[in-house]
Design a protein that fits this description.
It is built from eleven helices and twelve strands. It has 335 residues and is of the alpha/beta class. 52% of the residues are buried.
Length: 335
């Protein structure tokens, strides 16, 4: 199994993709709107990916946050609210906001599980800061660390209740970035003391099964390298100070925050300490180069991945999709 999560070009598994994926055995896959048409097609695609490996625990990821970040969209799937809705409610009624966030996440997870998706890149634990890039904006769960932590925990529980693994992002925090890391490399000049605010939600949810790093330079910790490629930040800040010991992936290595050849980017993320590099473009030739550039998963990484995927069996809520959405909407109406 190689240290990469790969992606596909379209809504069906192409023969050359199937051959590559069988040969290199990526740690998982991530899906985007280009891969999605309807329920039947999407379920067939996830079934095909699992069949390549002959097992049911292959991680198949998606970004289904709600609001503007949603790969599965109407009219085939329902729209979900942006995280800002739970932020507003929390300021009036914290307990109600946590319940609303939990039932919303369960409803999301039920739609994912129905089509064979078992990992959602949620919750986003970036603490919103005034004047920062709008790439966070209404995706944030708030500007106060304890609130972000509480709502994030509720989302993790809601996802797990329907058999979906959550991914906390973007460690160690994207909330201070003044530019969009999809387009250029952000530099954060905040002091170590100031950055403690950004770390707090990740510290409180350090037992999360999976996490995603950020492509941001934090000058207080490493003046040269973005977190995803910084051994200092991954080892000293993420693994030691935060205490996160879950399965750790980079953010998308195709983002313009990173420089150089795509394979070099992937190898640098893994060499720095990410368990896997995340590749999202679906470009076949890029996937080939990445597969040849990254090593196999370490024994520790394999163990972390196995533990993470085992959490999808945590269940017990039993609330239907309709009941979860109705309860969420009743609670959100309080704000």
């Amino acid at each position: 199994m190689i240290a990469a999560i790969l992606s596909l070009a379209g809504p069906v598994l192409a023969p050359d993709e199937a051959q590559l994926f069988r040969e290199c055995d990526p740690a998982g896959y991530i899906l985007f709107r280009r891969n999605i048409a309807d329920r039947a097609q999407l379920k067939a695609l996830t079934d095909a990916l699992r069949a390549l490996h002959g097992r049911d625990d292959v991680p198949i990821l998606i970004d289904q946050e709600g609001g503007r970040v949603a790969r599965m969209r109407p009219p085939e799937w329902p729209a979900f609210p942006a995280n800002e809705a739970f932020d507003r409610l929390y300021r009036l009624a914290p307990s109600s906001a946590m319940q609303a966030a939990r039932w919303n996440a369960r409803a999301i997870a039920l739609t994912l599980a129905e089509v064979g998706i078992n990992v959602d890149c949620l919750p986003m634990l970036d603490v919103r800061q005034p004047g920062a890039s709008d790439i966070v904006g209404d995706r944030a769960l708030g500007s106060e660390p304890m609130q972000v932590s509480a709502l994030g925990r509720a989302q993790l529980k809601g996802l797990a209740s329907a058999g979906v693994v959550g991914v906390v992002k973007h460690i160690p925090g994207h909330g201070r970035a003044l530019v969009d890391s999809h387009k250029e490399l952000p530099f954060v000049d905040a002091s170590d003391e100031e950055l403690a605010i950004d770390l707090e939600p990740f510290e409180r949810l350090a037992d999360a099964p999976m996490g995603m790093t950020s492509h941001i330079v934090y000058r207080a910790w490493d003046p040269d390298l973005p977190a995803s490629q910084s051994p200092t930040i991954i080892q000293q800040i993420i693994r030691q100070r935060i205490g996160f010991h879950g399965f750790l992936m980079s953010d998308d290595i195709g983002m313009e925050a990173l420089y150089g050849d795509i394979a070099v980017r992937a190898a640098a993320c893994v060499a720095a300490g990410c368990d896997v590099a995340l590749h999202c473009s679906g470009a076949f030739e890029e996937s080939v180069r990445i597969a040849n550039a990254v090593p196999g998963l370490t024994d520790e990484a394999e163990a972390r991945l196995a533990r993470a995927m085992a959490t999808r069996f945590t269940d017990g809520e039993g609330m239907s999709f309709a009941d979860a959405v109705e309860t969420r909407d009743q609670l959100l109406a309080l704000a």
